[in-house]
Write a structure and sequence with these properties.
This protein is an alpha+beta fold. Helices cover 30% and strands 28% of the residues.
């Protein structure tokens, strides 16, 4: 098999705007879609989308070998069991979002009696359980559900990417939510995840990612 002649099957998060969605016509679109396509074009790779119903299904498909790459994700020890990772396509800080009445959170490890709500299958869940055992973790099906629970005071906080939080709060009109802090070292360093069996793709994609300029990302 040569990377140049066959289409690389890829899986995505179908509902993660504005990073990426699979739209009604079945097309991958968003920040991740644009950056991945740019890297693939420069690497001379053809891509073929394998649609899934949610992110959990994409992770499972990747583990099974149904797709060769995952479009846009953080590197974690759990994911390193079956994936190798490119250099980041995009870096975005993670922020703490609370109800507007909640005081600023200077140190998350001091918040021991609080509930944090997170979408299923995220790298943040893996890290929060390890780094902040004092927080009670609630898992939801979607990004929007997580924000809704904080808005309705069913959870104290969520940790989400700055880009996604700003987009979702504006789009859904959740103006009773606010940014209440940032967790040092919790940046999203969003990379392409490649199945270990196709590790030959990593140097090709890394070379292409290195050519993407700050202007193109903006």
């Amino acid at each position: 098999r040569t990377a140049a002649t066959e289409a690389i099957r890829f899986c995505v998060d179908p509902d993660w705007p504005p990073y990426e969605v699979i739209n009604r016509s079945g097309t991958h679109e968003g920040i991740a879609a644009d950056l991945l396509q740019l890297a693939a074009d420069r690497a001379g790779l053809a891509l073929a989308l394998l649609p899934t119903k949610d992110w959990e299904e994409s992770l499972a498909a990747s583990r099974r070998g149904d797709c060769d790459i995952l479009s846009f994700l953080n590197q974690t020890p759990k994911r390193e069991e079956w994936l190798v990772f490119t250099q980041p396509l995009f870096v975005d800080p993670n922020i703490i979002v609370t109800h507007e009445d909640h005081p600023f959170i200077a140190d998350l490890s001091a918040e021991t009696d609080k509930t944090i709500v997170l979408p299923a299958g995220t790298s943040i869940e893996e890290r929060v359980r390890r780094d902040f055992p004092g927080l009670r973790v609630i898992i939801t099906e979607s990004e929007a559900d997580s924000f809704a629970m904080v808005s309705n005071r069913k959870a104290d906080l969520t940790i989400r990417s700055l880009t996604v939080a700003v987009y979702t709060i504006k789009k859904e009109g959740w103006f009773n939510l606010k940014v209440s802090g940032q967790v040092p070292g919790y940046d999203n360093r969003l990379r392409v995840g490649i199945r270990k069996e196709r590790a030959d793709l990593r140097p090709i994609l890394d070379q292409a990612i290195a050519t993407i300029t700050p202007q193109e990302r903006n």
